Amino acid sequence: MRIVLHMAKVRVAVAGASGYAGGEVLRLLLSHPEVEIGALTGASNAGQPLGALQPHLVPLADRVLEPTTIEVLSGHDVVFLALPHGQSGEVAAQLGDDTVVIDCGADFRLRDAGEWAKFYGGEHAGTWPYGLPELPGQRQELRGARRIAVPGCYPTVSTLSLAPAVAAGIVEPRVSIVAASGTSGAGKAAKSHLLGSEIMGNASAYGVGGDHRHTPEITQNLSALVDETVAVSFTPLLVPMSRGILATCSADLRAGHEVDAEEAHAIYAQAYAHEPFVHVLPRGQWPQTKSVIGSNALHLQVTVDEVAGRLVAVGAVDNLAKGTAGAAVQCMNLALGLDEGTGLTTIGLAP
Amino acid sequence: MRIVLHMAKVRVAVAGASGYAGGEVLRLLLSHPEVEIGALTGASNAGQPLGALQPHLVPLADRVLEPTTIEVLSGHDVVFLALPHGQSGEVAAQLGDDTVVIDCGADFRLRDAGEWAKFYGGEHAGTWPYGLPELPGQRQELRGARRIAVPGCYPTVSTLSLAPAVAAGIVEPRVSIVAASGTSGAGKAAKSHLLGSEIMGNASAYGVGGDHRHTPEITQNLSALVDETVAVSFTPLLVPMSRGILATCSADLRAGHEVDAEEAHAIYAQAYAHEPFVHVLPRGQWPQTKSVIGSNALHLQVTVDEVAGRLVAVGAVDNLAKGTAGAAVQCMNLALGLDEGTGLTTIGLAP
Amino acid sequence: MRIVLHMAKVRVAVAGASGYAGGEVLRLLLSHPEVEIGALTGASNAGQPLGALQPHLVPLADRVLEPTTIEVLSGHDVVFLALPHGQSGEVAAQLGDDTVVIDCGADFRLRDAGEWAKFYGGEHAGTWPYGLPELPGQRQELRGARRIAVPGCYPTVSTLSLAPAVAAGIVEPRVSIVAASGTSGAGKAAKSHLLGSEIMGNASAYGVGGDHRHTPEITQNLSALVDETVAVSFTPLLVPMSRGILATCSADLRAGHEVDAEEAHAIYAQAYAHEPFVHVLPRGQWPQTKSVIGSNALHLQVTVDEVAGRLVAVGAVDNLAKGTAGAAVQCMNLALGLDEGTGLTTIGLAP
Amino acid sequence: MRIVLHMAKVRVAVAGASGYAGGEVLRLLLSHPEVEIGALTGASNAGQPLGALQPHLVPLADRVLEPTTIEVLSGHDVVFLALPHGQSGEVAAQLGDDTVVIDCGADFRLRDAGEWAKFYGGEHAGTWPYGLPELPGQRQELRGARRIAVPGCYPTVSTLSLAPAVAAGIVEPRVSIVAASGTSGAGKAAKSHLLGSEIMGNASAYGVGGDHRHTPEITQNLSALVDETVAVSFTPLLVPMSRGILATCSADLRAGHEVDAEEAHAIYAQAYAHEPFVHVLPRGQWPQTKSVIGSNALHLQVTVDEVAGRLVAVGAVDNLAKGTAGAAVQCMNLALGLDEGTGLTTIGLAP
């Protein structure tokens, strides 16, 4: 016999419920046992039923979107912000300090106001606790937090794929990341170059040469692990799938500290041995995005190319789940003192 | 405060755990609160860890497949059979009458031994209660059953998309079904024409003109609703997606009983008003497979083409979920007296 | 030794060169030996180099789009109009009668002004010779024509897939068409529901119940073959591919005139025996869109379902090639007295 | 008036006509004005009509595959070998020295017998002129050649994307290549992990850490440009498309010789200024595979990441066309003294 204390549920609002990030937050919250879904807001979609915009969320089909105002959002225990970059600051400022505010946007990720201005434009809103509990020391910072910045999707997989090697000092502080992404990371706003007709059967590069907004975030994360700036060459690719990022991350072995593939694998396995959502695969098995779709898992493998003198790690993540909404729910759990994995799964949807 | 009696969990085995149907049964069982996963078996894959074959099922990654023998499968409360057609009969015959046996294959679906021999070859194994609880009177037959035949994926969506119209007598007993399917319905066995290179960017027809094995099953289902044989023209298509079936079903309006679109919609809405997994969409909104991927939901819409004098209904289902493994779990719940929806969801994975 | 008279090339303009239809016209014209490409026009894209909009058309990369005006378009031997529906009439009216004007839009396809108004809105511009030379008597009408209306993509494949059966009187005059299409038929204008994220992994129905604009065009084509109105139930599907339509067309066998599969195939084979671009496959082989991508070929197969008493024909076509731009070039060849297949191919791009 | 000498056509045989490489050679040869297609051979498919195996090659539908024997292949001016790796040597040895033999396999690409044995196994067959005319001095070697080894698909795009930078000495001799490929490069043999169900919606890495067979070929090519061994870190990815490779290539800027993006672009533009099939895009426009599908073009862009101190070049190629069969035809043209581009196009098939 098991006794469960049936406490009042946590009341949650989602601002930006018609987009991909907002929809994924809702998909996860619908199976979260401690949550009651409150207000759902939209911008131009306010007034429409959610069933017309997110037809996969059947239990919420008749819910009508409200405008994103402080009146609508106040009175909830938790507010998820899934708004366009630059819009979270103003909303958050109006929500009380006792409300847990979790920003799925970029507004509060970067510490350097100059980098913010360079990559996003406008004034820097500030810096919140960074929602990547798998980074050293970071989980503690998120427990009980009332403001959390969810990492970008590329930074999540890139950082976790390189962190053990960088932290262990087995690679030179110059890393290269080529990350193939599905298109949902680009959002639901209509753009010609993201049409199905353009995307299917097509792979393309964009934001090459350091132009992508996630570059400074990855640099910030990796540099924080060591006493020096890590040079990050980051190239994002669009490939024909809706969800998922596969990040190929490499760096020269540190001269004089060369490890072999087995040692590298052991370092990674140990680094994530107690992480519930980072799954270092058995040696020889390489990640695929399909294994993690819909889940909060990140699959990871590492090897050493002894001929080229280079460590290569490959990580796979669902950009909308662990890459955004799953991390957001994981952070909410930490903020509320719930079990970190409540409402989340490590099981992907395949085939 | 809520008190939960923590009874012993139901112990479940899955025969054919390395294929798509078996993998999907496991994916669903892993989030089923009343189930404990027992033996997993394979044929040529016996001896391999499941993580190498189904890398998305992380919690079972270290489980090793056993051979499909009576020794391995006995001692479980429930056995799911996800075997090639024609292999279930022999296994089932050796399992005790108190074991719930749920066959995801075709062996026990058809009542007519001649049809079985024509479409599948070999001897007819028999007929089990048919696992489509949404058919009139069928749910009662499944409660407490110890042998259940899970319907084929095409028959599930085709039958439920046409049943209200056929049963209400508003269409002539000659129906046409064109069902566009993802490729996972064809299984995981390697075949050249199912290679990604062949499938992507390609739509094709097969089994045209009544040649597909699911034709007699659909005919059996629809004819049972009325006092006559319903003529079924069934054309399956392969389209470039892994999961999902979209079935376009039509029939001439019955002469003298013509309904309009609103009346047809009302008949459908009423027919499924109390069904937890059949979701008749609001008028004007048409189904898409993406809304039901990974879920046990079937989305449905119907209209009347007054110029052509024809009723057209379109249903969407995930062939592996409600089309196979979801139905199997739904049936298990009924057989065991659990809540029918335990471990299942109506929420699809989109985008 | 062969002697070739090197005549002055035909000078061709393309209005709407930045869209999918215009781009495909250009792709074909670039390998047409008798053509010289003149003005290229766009609307909002005027002023941009074609290389930024159609990067696959390398030889035209530096060409700059001009506005769609009579000044720009005049002075060419042939003008292709690839404009939004409703815009061709005004442009065409200003072009001289000696200019060959080929409209890839819908403006001049329908004979019935009421149907035009119902499905497209606005005033009916008129009716031009219909650019489907494979219809009985139609080729003669196109030779030397100065105005040609290119058929819609769905009507092309639907009409040619059903015409032999309808004309031979072996089916009842009530046909059902379910046509799975790639997304390029919906054009290049940015719309959320056509984003890659929405389209990939998804099949959906739209325009069901006679709502699609191509329904009256198909009805017009088939009814013209016989002395009665053919009832057309037409359902278009969107499936995850850029190009291609697979049309599944069926009709009840005409009572008292039942043919079997072999007879049906013979009727089709004979009907298209001399057509260079219609390829009736050997019995038992079913069409796939991939075989015709990029080509002007239409692949076709037919059978009879004797149990259901229904003829089923399946046709595959590239919506942008034979379905639009290929037909346009084929019509231009006829209009100019060139060999009908000049610059066209029957060879698809696979895999 | 133009006078054309109508010489006897070149008679060509294709060994391995049922596979992807052989099919693509035939697709190109069918539009080559100087070629007559002779014997077509297969292994297990001998005796079947080509129409059943390559339904897109309509003009050859009735051709029957013959066995791959010297009797069948002899008597042709040119023989293309599209055989599994390791099988070309024996066939080629039996063909006369006056026959042009073009091997699409790997047998004669590598100079180092040890590398061959390590990556392919078995005995090294020898080294033939390497069919990449865009490499310095290479075109001359191919003119009039009677044996030509067509490069691998990955090496073609990787080598040409890095060659100008390596040759100019503006990068350190340690390069990183991450190449996202469609699945047709893996061939038409049925393998479970290449099924459409596995591939769609999925990105994965394989052959990581120097394990892929194309690594030594890329190393051989780049090292030949300079007086030192270039260290090559090569990671291939499978992404959900049939055709195309997008290679992201990077290297640290050479210390003391740092160039900026404009200088790098100028070096690339100059290197390929006279190459008919290498298209360096205008600055700011990045390659996409769709622009080159079906064509012999390679699209290329380069930039410099000044923060990371790294040059990044991205190349796109159709693995079956310029990556295999297009290069083979280009080489045939050079061997026969024809115009290098005969029968080839720079125009891709998009969308």
From TrEMBL, chains A, B, C, D:
It is found in: Cytoplasm. The active site is at residue 153. It is an enzyme of class 1 (oxidoreductase). SUPFAM superfamilies: Glyceraldehyde-3-phosphate dehydrogenase-like, C-terminal domain, NAD(P)-binding Rossmann-fold domains. Its EC number is 1.2.1.38. Keywords: Amino-acid biosynthesis, Arginine biosynthesis, Cytoplasm, NADP, Oxidoreductase. Residues 11-143 form the Semialdehyde dehydrogenase NAD-binding domain. Pathway: Amino-acid biosynthesis; L-arginine biosynthesis; N(2)-acetyl-L-ornithine from L-glutamate: step 3/4. Transmembrane segments: none annotated. HAMAP family: ArgC_type1. This is N-acetyl-gamma-glutamyl-phosphate reductase. It comes from Nocardioides dokdonensis FR1436.
